[in-house]
Amino acid sequence: MPDCDGPRTRVIEKVLASDWMDSVIDEEHAPPSVFLGPELVRQKLYQLSPEEDYTLCQSLARVSSYYVADQQQRPPFSAARYGAVTKVYVVAKQDMAMVEEYQRHMIAGIPVVEVREMANADHMVMFSAPDELAGHLADIANTYT
Fold first, then answer.
1. Which residues are registered as beta bridge partners of 143?
2. 22 and which of 37, 75, 101, 139 could share a cystine (Cβ 3.0–4.6 Å)?
């Protein structure tokens, strides 16, 4: 989740080269691209998700734009607009791509009105814990609208 104090790329810049595992990042050709490797997807994104969701993800895998350099040149999000939006953060405690410690670090720098937790959700919360996520989203919508 971005903040209004730093570059838009702060989150992606914290990812170490080794964290990308078997992914391929190509910044040499225009436009820069990334292909998320199957081991990264299995071990860090879908480790608690149903096998059929992982299989579908792999069958639909494509090279994606890697927009870091472009985003580095853009100003931070404004406090007047982005900062004025009420934010609730749902921590996915089993997220191996953005581990809980890092999620909490992001939360500390962003004004959120509430932090919720999902104990058994991986990075792909909508697949690993869809009913629990739907409950949180409905409750958040009812509480903050």
1. none
2. 37
